[in-house]
Amino acid sequence: MAQGRGGIRGARIGSGPMGESERGELAPRTAVSFWCGNGHRTQITFAVEAAVPPTWDCRNCGLPAGPDPDDVPVAQGSAPYRTHLGYVRQRRSQEDGEILLNEALAKLRGTI
């Protein structure tokens, strides 16, 4: 026995089939495949008149993917984490740091 469930599930009363006659015709499309460095294939459908981008993010791993499976784009390397001292060393040499340290110590000692 159906136990009180109706025969039509997931539809409103009075709704009919929704086909192309109600929505209109679909735009002409083209499918483009993109491959990432891990060998994943991502297929994207574009309108025929749309410009196809040179790269697309892989749905599986997030690496950049290109349309040529033999020439996949290389992921941009991210800069390593750098501490505050690392940034200071990038801007100043060791000699400059020694001079600044000696000036700061002289101020603290009251000799300047």
Structure description:
Helix content is 25%, strand content 16%. By secondary structure, the chain is of the alpha+beta class. It has three helices and four strands. The strands form two sheets. A two-stranded antiparallel sheet has the order 1-2. A two-stranded antiparallel sheet has the order 3-4. The chain has helices at residues 20-23, 84-91, 94-109, and strands spanning 29-35, 41-47, 56-57, 64-65. Among the domains are: 26-65, Rubrerythrin, domain 2 (Single Sheet), CATH 2.20.28; 79-112.
Radius of gyration: 31 Å
Biggest beta-sheet profile: 2 strands, antiparallel
Indicate the mean pLDDT.
83
Q: What proportion of the residues form beta strands (DSSP E)?
A: 15-25%
**What is the approximate shape?**
elongated
| Poorly predicted residue ranges | none
* Beta strand count: 4
Binding site for Zn(2+): 36, 40, 58, 61
Cofactor: Zn(2+)
Function: Binds to RNA polymerase (RNAP), stimulating transcription from principal, but not alternative sigma factor promoters.
Pfam family, one: RbpA
